[in-house]
Design brief:
single chain; alpha/beta; about 55% helix; elongated; binds guanosine-5'-diphosphate; signal recognition particle; RNA-binding; GTP binding
């Protein structure tokens, strides 16, 4: 995960690690390399610039030039800032409703259906949760089939209504079904298009208003880099969502989306998808991710 970024940051900081004492020039060069590594990872220019400015301020504030092990101190400062950039403290998902309603949003192909299954499985394994999956993609019968396949695989019931073309009505019927059958979590999988368009935004916004979910999650493919960040912004403007799900982190992603998304939409990344299997879900811990990136 993020091997290229890891290597480049390691090389950038390596210069300082060997020095017993360092100069302002060493620090400036290192920060330039750090910024370059972030830009190569597809982090937005302004975010990368602000990041290195903050690291510089901290480094000067902590007298990095006179400390005994300047390299170590710089690594720590970069790690702390990276953690902060990716979200700081961990926030869980809100499961306070009876039932708790979770609305999934995102583009087609982002991994919504797969993640809906993963989350249902994750919650089911917590024993106190009995999730219901609701299929609200009225445009693609294959999407409904896919959710049923996922549900069968993990032993979670799926609610669908193939003849119905109104996703608001289906989501409401799904919630009513959950209440009548003792499900305490309802996960609503919605339709996505290949790009942000007004019809999709109106539809998801109508569902959102009609069902008032405890948790609205935005699912995004981490491989799409800066596009992921732009798409997040469009969805957040309409839905004011609660958290981000970053999928396909097992692939050859450069990491820009993971690093930038929080500071653009100011919403936490809550889970990551790390594979196609139902078990490939992890809670997102910014500090662990920073540790991983910085080795
Ligand atoms: P949706 O259109 O948003 O519902 O997306 P899908 O759930 O159908 O996922 C699109 C494709 O991405 C499928 O082939 C999934 O198997 C795959 N996929 C989803 N999540 C992950 C992930 O975390 N890692 C990998 N490698 N593939 C994933």
């Amino acid at each position: 995960m993020f091997n290229n970024l890891s290597d480049k940051l390691d090389k950038a900081l390596h210069v300082l690690k060997g020095h017993g004492s360092i100069t302002e020039v060493n620090v400036a060069e290192t920060l330039k390399e750090v910024r370059r590594a972030l830009l190569d990872a597809d982090v937005n220019f302004k975010i990368a610039k602000d990041f290195t400015n903050r690291v510089k301020e901290k480094a000067l504030g902590q007298d990095v030039l006179t400390t005994l092990q300047p390299g170590q101190l710089m690594v720590k400062i970069v790690k702390d800032e990276l953690t902060e950039l990716m979200g700081g403290d961990v926030e869980g998902i809100n499961l306070s409703g009876t039932p708790s309603i979770i609305l999934m949003s995102g583009l087609q192909g982002s991994g919504k259906t797969t993640f809906s299954g993963k989350l249902a499985n994750y919650l089911k394994n917590k024993k106190t949760k009995k999730p219901l999956l609701v299929a609200c993609d009225v445009y693609r019968p294959a999407a409904i089939d896919q959710l049923h396949v996922v549900g069968d695989q993990i032993g979670v019931e799926v609610f669908s209504d193939r003849g119905n073309t109104d996703p608001v009505a289906i989501s409401q019927a799904g919630i009513a079904h959950a209440k009548a059958n003792g499900h305490n979590v309802v996960i609503i999988d919605t339709a996505g298009r290949l790009a942000v368009d007004e019809a999709m935004m109106t539809e998801i916004s109508n569902i959102h208003k009609a069902i008032s979910p405890q948790e609205t999650l935005f699912v995004v493919d981490s491989m799409t880099g800066q596009d992921a960040v732009n798409t997040a912004k469009s969805f957040n403007d309409v839905l004011n969502f609660d958290g981000v799900i970053l999928t396909k982190l097992d692939g050859d992603t450069r990491g820009g989306a993971a690093i930038s998304i929080k500071s653009v939409v100011n919403k936490p990344i809550k889970f990551i998808g790390t594979g196609e299997k139902m078990e490939a879900i992890d809670v997102f811990y910014p500090s662990r991710m920073a540790d991983r990136i910085l080795g």
